[in-house]
């Protein structure tokens, strides 16, 4: 049915009608007092969301652009960095670091297994000459659905005294606690199409005072991505280059919605939806990729396909018969897992609908090793008692 597609993917996520309507307004002059007022409100909301007193810069870019800005502004070619890799986006950090000529040390675990915190701690503690200039991490690894213990690793970096903490918060900001100041994070990069509940197109970079100081020492060339230009403009109530004005309208609206809901309520909602999704999946006899389950992200659940069934067959039935989109596995997990996103503008009803349609799709592809209705019932039980 036309215009009935339901997004249950980890991005882009559904957009509230109020945000869509806000975007329908005509653009205004981005050097006007009216836009300055929007920028100031949005900046205050972004600081609140990140739990920081530091600046949060907004670029017209994807989350990857925000990640690149984090590297280019705080580091220099040849510097040593530790990069956590346990999924596609950790690999992206490592590839980016290597592309820019950093001395990149990968700390790897299989996809779905959280970072080995003790290895980061050991390497940082052993670095008496302070050669490690940054620890680069993915908080919620979207490709596998694992949440990494950024807080513990950041504490080790603080004890080290020199290493910055640069974090991919693309599917964690707005879905789980990201306490930038309390945890001692220096750069947190994210994108608009996730927990922010608006379409793709804006990249956010929250930057600590330590990171801003590092930007004065960095020798990487940058212009569009410059923190210095971004901060100078922000102090003047503007942006260094033409912003995506209509996306700012939407962001203004969704930040107002988020503040009305409250941070703790947002985190509890995402945790509840994640728990319900996983209970439903397991009731259908399916296995989760993440081990242990306690390390699973509240933003996305990675589900292993039944033996002998290609995961993309399940996704195809969900999309063609029920207009429900789930995400594919990536790289070596393609065809082996599918991913259910439950972040942003997602409700209890959405999870229940997903469980019901998933059960029907499983029947269609020839899998019936479950009691009819078990997935929906298990999810409903969690939702009723959370």
Automatic annotation (TrEMBL):
Keyword Transferase among record annotations: yes
Domain Aminotransferase class V as annotated: residue spans: 28-330
Pfam families in the cross-refs: Aminotran_5
Keywords: Aminotransferase, Pyridoxal phosphate, Transferase
Molecular function via GO: transaminase activity
Cofactors (names): pyridoxal 5'-phosphate
Top-level taxon of origin: Bacteria
Family membership noted in the UniProt record: Belongs to the class-V pyridoxal-phosphate-dependent aminotransferase family.
PANTHER family registered for this protein in UniProt: ALANINE--GLYOXYLATE AMINOTRANSFERASE, AMINOTRANSFERASE CLASS V
Record protein name field: Alanine--glyoxylate aminotransferase family protein
Native organism: Thermostichus vulcanus str. 'Rupite'
């Amino acid at each position: 049915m036309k215009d009935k597609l339901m997004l249950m993917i980890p991005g882009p996520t559904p957009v509230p009608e109020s945000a869509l309507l806000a975007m329908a307004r005509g653009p205004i002059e981005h050097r006007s007092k009216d836009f300055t007022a929007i920028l100031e409100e949005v900046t205050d909301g972004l600081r609140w969301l990140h739990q920081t007193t530091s600046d949060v810069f907004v670029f017209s870019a994807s989350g990857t652009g925000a990640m690149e800005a984090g590297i280019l502004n705080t580091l220099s070619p040849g510097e040593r960095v530790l990069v956590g890799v346990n999924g596609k986006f950790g690999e992206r950090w490592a590839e980016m670091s290597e592309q820019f000529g950093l001395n990149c040390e990968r700390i790897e675990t299989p996809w779905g297994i959280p970072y080995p915190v003790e290895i980061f701690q050991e390497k940082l503690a052993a670095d008496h000459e302070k050669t490690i200039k940054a620890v680069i991490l993915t908080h919620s690894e979207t490709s596998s659905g694992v949440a990494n213990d950024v807080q513990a690793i950041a504490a080790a970096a603080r004890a080290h005294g020199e290493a910055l903490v640069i974090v991919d918060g693309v599917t964690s900001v707005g879905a789980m606690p990201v306490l930038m100041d309390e945890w001692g994070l220096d750069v947190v990069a994210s994108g608009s199409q996730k927990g922010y509940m608006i379409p793709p197109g804006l990249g956010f970079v929250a930057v600590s005072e330590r990171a801003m100081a590092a930007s004065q020492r960095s020798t990487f060339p940058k212009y569009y991505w410059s923190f210095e230009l971004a901060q100078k403009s922000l102090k003047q109530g503007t942006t260094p280059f033409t912003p995506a004005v209509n996306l700012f309208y939407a962001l203004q609206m969704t930040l107002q919605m988020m503040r009305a809901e409250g941070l703790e309520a947002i985190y509890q909602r995402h945790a509840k939806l994640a728990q319900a999704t996983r209970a439903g999946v397991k009731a259908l006899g399916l296995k989760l990729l993440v081990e242990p389950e306690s390390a699973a992200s509240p933003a996305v659940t990675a589900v292993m396909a039944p033996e002998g069934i290609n995961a993309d067959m399940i996704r195809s039935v969900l999309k063609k018969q029920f207009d429900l989109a789930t995400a594919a596995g990536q790289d070596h997990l393609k065809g082996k897992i599918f991913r259910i996103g439950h972040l942003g503008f997602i409700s209890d009803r959405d999870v229940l609908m997903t469980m019901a349609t998933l059960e029907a799709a499983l029947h269609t592809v020839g899998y019936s090793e479950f009691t009819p209705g078990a997935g929906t019932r298990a999810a409903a039980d969690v939702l009723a008692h959370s």
